[in-house]
Write a structure and sequence with these properties.
elongated, 2 helices, six-stranded mixed beta sheet, two-stranded antiparallel ribbon, about 35% strand, mainly beta
Length: about 180
Amino acid sequence: MLPLSLNQIRTAQDRIEQVHQPDQFEPDEDFRVVAPVSLAFDIFKDKQAFRLAGRTQTTLELKCSRCLEPFTAPVDQEFDLRYQPHTVNTGEGEREIEEDDLTTAFYENDEIDLGQLTHEQFVLSLPMKPLCSDACRGLCPVCGTNWNKSACDVKPVWEVPPLAALRGLRTKNSETGTDAGRER
């Protein structure tokens, strides 16, 4: 947790710039923070409501979804979030979500957790399918060899059971001298 004490915010607008070390962030199953995290934002105060607008920058280590090898990816994520006291969150039954609801979070004990804010930004910056490179060849599905590093001796078998009957038909036609619906 990286707490931001809201009691220290005395003016209507302030600028905050911080650098956090990678070991200050909780491990995540999808990525690992491998470089210092730069967090810079303007904070706007309106009574008990706060708006944080800025950016976070770092480098994450991800696993390639094809070859499972680790690789690094830069993060440069902008954010614009509103925070209200948790007591405002009354949970007043069902209602349609509005655009402002997607950028509104809640704080407790006069603190905003900047660790949670940065974690959310990291997750939002992740690609849907992380790849070490667009040309990644992946792993052999039979023996597990990383095709980016070496070839394997497994011969591909492309026989798909629903289409196996067509293969038999092709063999039968070649024996009789016909070709799929027309005679030679």
